[in-house]
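#lab-general

N.A. 3:47 PM
ok so I finally got the sequence cleaned up, no stray characters, all 300 residues accounted for. can someone with queue access submit it? mine expired

B.Y. 3:52 PM
send it over

N.A. 3:53 PM
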Amino acid sequence: MLVAFVQALPLAWVIRLGRAGGALAITLDARHREVALRNLAMCFPEKAPEEIASLARENFRRIGENFGSAVKTAAMSEGQIRALLTVSGCERFVPFREDGPTPRSVVVAIGHFGNFELYARTPLFAPGFRPSTTYRGLRQPGLDRLLQKLRSRSGCAFFERRRDAAALKAAIEKPGLMIGLLADQHAGDRGARMPFLGHDCSTSVAPAVLALRYGCPLFTGICFRTAPGRWHIEYGDEIPTHEHGRPRDTEAITADVNRAFETAIRRDPANWFWVHNRWKPGKWRRETVPDEPATLAEDQ
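B.Y. 4:20 PM
back already:
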């Protein structure tokens, strides 16, 4: 009922309600407020405490705005999406020609920037590609089914990380798949220890692993909020996966991904998901290319 109510509202109203909810959340949710403040102060030591507090407040408002907008845009038609979303850089993918071959599959390292559910709509601007991504199912079956029902309207294929490794392998071996992998959160004990915004943290190397294993070009994608209810997705230059004819180290590839994310965060700090504890203490091992698809699903 809540989803139906949100989708029935005009987008402008959804944005106002989402921002109001975010403003309320930073007041009531002390745990995530402290995480955001700590992360921001650590990554932007040059900013005064007042600037950090102001940035945290805007970040919470943006998160509320993004959550509401994601529910609303999930039900929008192709024409409606084109009116509020622009995309650049997808011309860097193998060009599609109606009389030519289907383009090879590509891997895109994405993050929690803006209304990140809009990544699934990129094929509107890149004909010939099928969108897909991995996800981790929710503990509550009912909520998990609701979330997948919302997401399925975009035409994006979703592969559950713990169950669908074989299906993902079969899909990516076919041409024309564009698979987006969220790679900006703490990767647990299986991640590689790497610097991000000046501090070491556990980092997923899954985009690098997948691109190397299946010979796919690797890109980064960032969703920027350009105005209330307007977004722009930028796809960066191809990240080299080979050097002098030999595969690059997965950590070297991932370092390039991290640098692209860092540039995007500094460009608009409020646009990222600061309430996540990205820099958890712990032990990490150096990641290598796994032998089995299931291992990749677990890593991601």
